[in-house]
Amino acid sequence: MDDERIPELKKAGIYLSIPFCRQKCTFCNFASDAYAVSLLNPYLRFLETEVRQWTNLWRQAGIPSFLDTIDADTIYLGGGTPGLLNSEQLTRLLEAVRSAFQIEEEPEITIEASPENATAGQSASWAACGINRVSMGVQSMVPQELRSVGRMHSPETVAQAFSALRNAGLENISADLIAGLPYQTAQSFQNSLQALLDLGPTHFSVYILEVDEDSRLGREILENGSRYRASSVPSEEQVVAFYCAAMELLRQAGFHHYEISNFARRGYESRHNQKYWTGVPYFGFGVEAHSYDGERRWANTDSLSAYLERMQQGQSPIAAFRTLRPQEKLEEHIFLGLRQRQGISLSRLHTEFATDLREIHGRQLHEFSESGWLETSEDILRLTDRGLLFSNEVFAGFLT
């Protein structure tokens, strides 16, 4: 396992939620949908307003406004499919961010996109807006698997997207893959991975299919139904094998496995996403966007209609916020730290939280170490390769 440490990131990240899609994928459990196109421009206007009036809207929601300004070095446009936005819409939105916050001279600016969004024209407009990183929702390179979950692209579209992005000067390209799609086999998953490796992305996110009530496919699987090709989803054991194969293949290809689901060429780790795992503040705007200032967490409404109504009435879209108790901060430090392959420093934990993990969780540490899920190297505690497969059980063990 690689012992190299990733440096701490101090400046905040800005997240912009664009919950609009051309079509809702059956596996998606986010608050995005194929909303009416007529709602997009009103939503973007209110999103710009929320960004520009952040101090007033936070104060209105009861969040103490102790910040006069926010210094940020990453901007992330997610959703949804922000790749649907045209050049004018993107320019206005990013101008609002730059006017409201102190953005460093060379920020990482990421846009999530579907392969069919990354045309020559769109790619050029993204580069002109200052976007320098593209997170592409590929999910699979097998047509049958793509069609089964409602994806609109083909393997040929993905190759064309990579070419268009590179021609526009956008070299930092991340590709998402999902292990566990309907009809997927060990061979088809490996074929998808190899086909993408041949295109040369700088980053991979490999996700295991989430089975929960918040997606149509997830609900159908839980109910033992057959709609949405639920009966063709591979078994849990097969999906684990797919993920393990991805870890090995990407390692052999020279990718640094730096977080449970994320792999990067050296120097191409997602600066924005690292903030979520290292306790650095981030501030989200738009539907279902979340924020963290180091002491408090809050979230906007996850309903587009509620968001539009609140903003139209001059009300804050923040639906919930809470100040973290010391125990919660400790627990978050543990499970977010263990998500990273670098692990957590036991001495730092003791310094920051006056806690000796070996005293308060000695039984769990022993049990998980004996199971081969955790390992300790001098001061560092981290998940093993096998432990990644049981990370939820490990995290639960450290929660009170």
Q: Would you mind describing this structure in some detail?
A:
There is one protein chain. The chain is an alpha/beta fold. The chain has two domains: 12-278, Alpha-Beta Barrel (TIM Barrel); 326-397, Arc Repressor Mutant, subunit A (Orthogonal Bundle). The protein has helices spanning 40-52, 54-60, 87-100, 120-128, 143-148, 155-167, 186-199, 216-222, 236-252, 271-278, 304-312, 326-339, 346-353, 357-360, 362-370, 385-388, 391-397; strands at residues 12-18, 71-79, 102-113, 133-139, 173-179, 203-208, 256-259, 262-264, 282-285, 290-292, 296-300, 318-323, 344-345, 374-377, 380-383. It starts with 11 loop residues before the first strand and ends with a helix.
Please sum up the structure shown.
The protein is an alpha/beta fold and 400 residues long.
